[in-house]
Design goal:
Layout (H helix, E strand, L loop, with lengths): L10 H17 L8 H11 L6 H12 L4 H22 L9 E2 L2 E2 L1 H5 L1 H21 L6 H15 L4 H11 L6 H26 L4 H28 L2 H4 L5 H4 L5 H5 L1 H18 L8 H12 L3
Antiparallel strand pairs: 1-2
Helix pairs in contact: 1-3, 2-6, 3-4, 3-9, 4-6, 4-9, 6-7, 7-9, 8-9, 9-10, 10-14, 14-15
Bound molecules: geranylgeranyl diphosphate (GRG).
Length: 300
Amino acid sequence: MTVAVSTSFEFAAYLEAARLRVEAALDVSLGPERPESLREAMRYSLLAGGKRLRPILCLAACELAGGDSDLALPTAVGLEMVHTMSLIHDDLPAMDNDDLRRGRLTNHKVFGEANAILAGDALLTRAFEMVALRSPGVPAERLLAVVGELSLASGAPGLVGGQVVDLESEGKQVDLETLEYIHLHKTGALLQACVLSGALIAGASEELLTALRRYARGIGLAFQIIDDILDVTASSEVLGKTAGKDLTADKTTYPKLLGLEESRQRAEALVEEAKTALEPWLERAHPLLALADYITSRDR
Ligand code: GRG
């Protein structure tokens, strides 16, 4: 069974409005950073565009849970800071060693390796500041829960753990189970933190949080499968990052294990699973349902 998004829901307009709202909040988010050179390196990557999917997921989940998404905006900004930090570090010579990101030179190519590492570190810690010190109007116990989710997603149980297994797997024969582990940790964990944080700020029920975990698992895996597919099928110009990188780095990917067609089918099935989890909340779930569809239909 497929869960349909209401035909009256204008997703393109919703996405653009949400993106602009996030861009404006990101633009004013970096104020007190000193020295100026550090602030410049942080802003360079944070304001380099990008789809802003993670903050948008956070705001949409807050609204689904019946909350005021203005209260979730600082956390949404923090989530984009963590994501941006992971891109800066991922591009470093010691990791994926890339020159192009979000359509411009990578952070270390412009500011040097040491400054790129430090800009990433400052963005990561700033994300926690956004939640703990710059989220007025949100009860402290909810913020504490958000800090918990952010910690799990950023550290060994999430991004870092996934990245380590990813790097260790380069040039090796990797099975589907390991590949799923990498994707769920490297990519899925932060997407999960996004929807859970938004919902936690709204004071969501345990039942909704459980459903959102299921939703996040589906979109997280699907997102990375599509990322693997686009790496093979899209150009560097459209992606804003170097295409064909997985092949060069001898990485195992879904297309390599299953072929393009089966990979796409798997991503679509995962998105359907994700959407099914939100069926009981259909009335307010249209943005999250449409965002799930967007994950498989996107071209960059
Ligand atoms: C230092 C705490 C710490 C963590 C760093 C480097 C690292 C550990 C993890 C790598 C995580 C990573 C880069 C995963 C890939 C996720 C992914 C698919 C990124 C692309 O996301 P998009 O398409 O990019 O949403 P835009 O540019 O649109 O935001």
